[in-house]
């Protein structure tokens, strides 16, 4: 049984060449991209093709005939592009599987040859069900083989097991990206300059010294029909309206022709006012992919995502037409984001659902349904409960694609938004909460009151009462015992007021010793009863500090919101006049405006 989960398996016998990290990295990339059960590299041997390395799981031995390799070798020797041979039961017979009741086998193979020609081996994709490759995947597999051929040549040229001369694994990814036509750019927004890598310039047919750095020239190269869209997306990202910049558009080459490119970037530096200073990104030539298949967006995103430094989970999520849900690919970031492993979600997404906070689970499922139904991007912020990390915030983004059988495939990423949400909550609290009493501050109280007033005007016949409250003799209390005790008196009164109020009432500190309450749905009589209950509660609950007992009383002015009022300020003014009357008539009273 050939089996691997993370590291890859070298299966050559003693004395034969050993697959190095580069070959294993290639197989991981191929298996993750195509969603295969296994990916193998086989090399010719005296007894027939022999497996050199495997990523995935497959029973041994693998009975592969030699004819396809002879065919592939002929293509390689001729100098043509690597042959990609669709098998699917036509070239090779079905292979045995772990479950003997199923039929399966090789569904694609790609010949690997060296820099000077000559067949070296073959890359195989195996699955437990018949599979086919569209034109876009066919092209991508051939591209991987082009990068892998020289790597295999180095392995075969080295003594068995010594790994000499093999580059580190990430070199393979660099080769693949270079072969796909990707260039890097760095924009200095303040100077109005943009600097391009040599690969970026070569993509448009320029030599390194033939392209200037002026941003005006960069805008001019964009196709006239795409220019407004590109500039709008760029402005939106500069202003913080998008997490990253991503566009697909046409661009003029040196010879006057146009290419399709996918350009992604992100502002990496802002000034203290939040203005963008520097932006970096990568551009990929997608002309051939657009011509090969209009549905090649999945492959484009996968390749370009390899250049993104995403601190989180990169994933492919699939929902079949009959409702099955699973992650066809999950990066190692799933351990940080969900405290799970890729195998936990490879056949079912239930383990992820179990991690989502019950308060957000319905919204999570609804957002995916809407994204699938309308093929609109999926974006959501939601909470998760994790065994080790506890309650955390997650931010997910993905793009959907309809599959031929009617299912939907998303590709995207999920990041940790906990720290950002914490900062947002602190800023919201600073902007809305009175730090001494922990009631709504004046600004937030007025905002909530205006919202209630707008609701009253919409319904037409609603009611709401408003109370202004002021602690009696508060200045004398401060003068006698000091501001520290005065602050404790304010906190004590705020606690009593909060206990008397309903959860739907709007309660705030307006300033100093003055408070206000809006009672939605209650008229004048109910407001008077509320005020009298509060006075009794305050009288029965003096402030106690050590051996000191300080009696408190409160004066209250009342009126009701009227839909004819221009705004909340008018009813607060009337309540304030009623409060003044309560003070003038002896304090510790409830007075109604106009009486």
From TrEMBL:
InterPro entries with a match to the protein in the record: DGC-Regulatory_Protein, GGDEF_dom, Nucleotide_cyclase, PAC, PAS, PAS-assoc_C, PAS-like_dom_sf, PAS_fold_3
GGDEF domain ranges (all copies): 462-595
A GO term, aspect molecular function: catalytic activity
All copies of domain PAS, residue ranges: 169-241
CDD domains assigned to the protein according to its UniProt record, in alphabetical order: GGDEF (cd01949), PAS (cd00130)
Matching Pfam families: GGDEF (PF00990), PAS_3 (PF08447)
Residues covered by the PAC domain: 245-298
Protein name per UniProt: Diguanylate cyclase with PAS/PAC sensor
UniProt source species: Burkholderia plantarii
């Amino acid at each position: 049984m050939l089996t691997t989960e993370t590291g890859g398996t070298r299966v050559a016998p003693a004395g034969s060449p050993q697959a190095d990290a580069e070959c294993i990295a290639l197989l991981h990339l191929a298996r993750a991209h195509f969603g295969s059960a296994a990916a193998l590299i086989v090399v010719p041997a005296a007894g027939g093709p022999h497996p050199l390395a495997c990523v995935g799981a497959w029973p041994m031995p693998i009975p592969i005939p030699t004819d396809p390799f002879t065919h592939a070798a002929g293509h390689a020797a001729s100098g043509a592009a690597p042959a990609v041979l669709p098998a699917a039961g036509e070239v090779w017979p079905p292979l045995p599987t772990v479950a003997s009741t199923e039929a399966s086998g090789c569904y694609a193979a790609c010949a690997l040859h060296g820099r000077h020609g000559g067949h070296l081996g073959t890359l195989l994709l195996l699955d437990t069900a018949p599979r086919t490759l569209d034109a876009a995947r066919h092209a991508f597999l051939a591209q991987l083989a082009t990068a892998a051929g020289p790597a295999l040549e180095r392995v075969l040229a080295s003594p068995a097991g010594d790994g000499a001369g093999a580059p580190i694994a990430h070199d393979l990814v660099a080769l693949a990206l270079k072969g796909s036509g990707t260039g890097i750019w760095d924009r200095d927004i303040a100077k109005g300059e943009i600097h391009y890598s040599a690969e970026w310039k070569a993509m448009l047919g320029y030599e390194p010294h033939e392209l200037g750095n002026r941003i005006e020239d960069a805008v001019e190269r964009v196709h006239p029909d795409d220019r407004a869209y590109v500039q709008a997306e760029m402005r939106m990202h500069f202003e913080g309206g998008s997490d990253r910049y991503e566009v697909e558009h046409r661009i003029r080459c040196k010879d006057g022709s146009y290419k399709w490119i996918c350009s992604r970037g992100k502002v990496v530096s802002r000034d203290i006012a939040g203005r963008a200073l520097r932006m970096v990104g990568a551009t990929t030539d997608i002309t051939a992919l657009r011509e090969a298949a209009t549905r090649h967006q999945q492959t484009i995103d996968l390749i370009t995502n390899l250049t993104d430094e995403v601190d989180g989970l990169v994933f492919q999520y699939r929902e079949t037409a009959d409702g099955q849900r699973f992650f066809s690919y999950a990066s190692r970031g799933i351990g940080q984001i969900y405290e799970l492993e890729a195998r936990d979600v490879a056949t079912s997404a239930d383990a992820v659902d179990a991690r989502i906070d019950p308060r957000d689970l319905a919204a999570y499922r609804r957002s995916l349904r809407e994204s699938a139904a309308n093929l609109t991007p999926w974006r959501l912020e939601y909470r998760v409960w994790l065994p080790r990390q506890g309650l955390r915030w997650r931010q997910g983004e993905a793009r959907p694609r309809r599959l031929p059988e009617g299912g939907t495939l998303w590709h995207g990423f999920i990041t940790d938004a906990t720290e950002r949400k914490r900062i947002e909550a602190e800023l919201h609290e600073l902007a809305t909460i009175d730090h001494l009493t922990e009631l709504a501050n004046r600004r937030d109280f007025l905002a909530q009151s205006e919202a209630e007033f707008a609701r009253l005007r919409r319904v037409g016949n609603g009611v709401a009462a408003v109370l202004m409250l002021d602690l009696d003799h508060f200045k004398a209390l401060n003068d006698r015992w000091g501001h520290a005790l005065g602050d404790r008196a304010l906190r004590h009164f705020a606690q009593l007021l909060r206990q008397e109020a309903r959860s739907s009432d709007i309660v705030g500190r307006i300033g100093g010793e003055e408070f206000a309450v809006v009672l939605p749905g209650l008229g004048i009589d109910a407001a008077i009863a509320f005020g009298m209950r509060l006075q009794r509660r305050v009288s029965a609950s003096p402030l106690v500090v050590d051996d000191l007992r300080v009696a408190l009383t409160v004066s209250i002015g009342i009126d009701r919101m009227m839909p004819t009022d221009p705004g909340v300020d008018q009813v607060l003014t009337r309540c304030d006049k009623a409060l003044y009357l309560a003070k003038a008539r002896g304090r510790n009273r409830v007075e109604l405006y106009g009486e």
